[in-house]
Amino acid sequence: MQRLVVGAGYGLKDWLAQRITGVVMAVFTLIMFAAALGGAMSSREAWQAFMANGLIRFLSFLFIVSLCYHAWVGVRDIWMDYLNSAALRLFLHVMTLLALVGYAGWAIQIIWRL
Amino acid sequence: MPEMTKQRPKHLALNEIRLPLAGFASILHRISGAGLFLLLPLLIWLLQLSLGSTQASAETFAAITGNWLVKLVLLGLMWAFLHHFCMGIRILLIDIHVGVEKQQAHSSAMAVMVVSLALTAVFGLKLLGAY
Known about the structure:
The complex is a heterodimer of chains A (114) and B (131). Chain A has 114 residues and is mainly alpha-helical. Chain A contains four helices and no strands. In chain A, helix 1 packs across helix 3 (54-82) and helix 3 (54-82) packs antiparallel against helix 4 (86-112). The radius of gyration of chain A is 18 Å and the shape is elongated. Chain B has a domain at 22-36 and 67-127: 3 helical TM bundles of succinate and fumarate reductases (Up-down Bundle). Helices cover 73% and strands 0% of the residues of chain B. In chain B, helix 1 crosses helix 4, helix 1 (21-38) packs parallel to helix 5 and helix 4 packs antiparallel against helix 5. Chains A and B meet through helix 1, helix 2, helix 3 and helix 4 of A and helix 1, helix 2 and helix 4 of B.
């Protein structure tokens, strides 16, 4: 049976992106937990040396990008579920997007200059 | 015929609905995610201070994280993260058809609640300096 596909068509892509970014963050969380057990957070110096490591910086970058994409989909869903006014929704979508892009730049700048 | 006299459309009284445990854990997933999003600037700022090279950033970090109100907020964020993490794993498992049955879904929701609260206690005591 041919099914009529309605909507903007971004649902499946975002659903999948939400899972992939979630997995990336979960794996990173486990790595950080293991690092903490290994003493990477035992002192300020140890923490800074750990975060300056090239591989960790690479993974931190992926975490930040994943977090912001994940938060965008999640927060946008909240606005879509509860707000009826299209104008208010558009405004909050834009604000959310601008905030997250800014946070991403800020956080990446913090880890990348180490 | 009571079916004929049913009121339509039906309006759900949100304050009277008792969510099943899985529904409760699910709405907490949304609430915890929203909370993490709203306080993300605080977390990035703390990351910045923790990685700052100056003495001033070290002192500011110590002063902020030493504040009791901040500790309380961080404890809340810790629970939010852990709940979101555990619930996320539950969602991924259900996506691959693990634990879809009603009883299993109830048990896994209970596991999410218990594990995230227990981990919050373990990490929270560390945050509050108990060990």
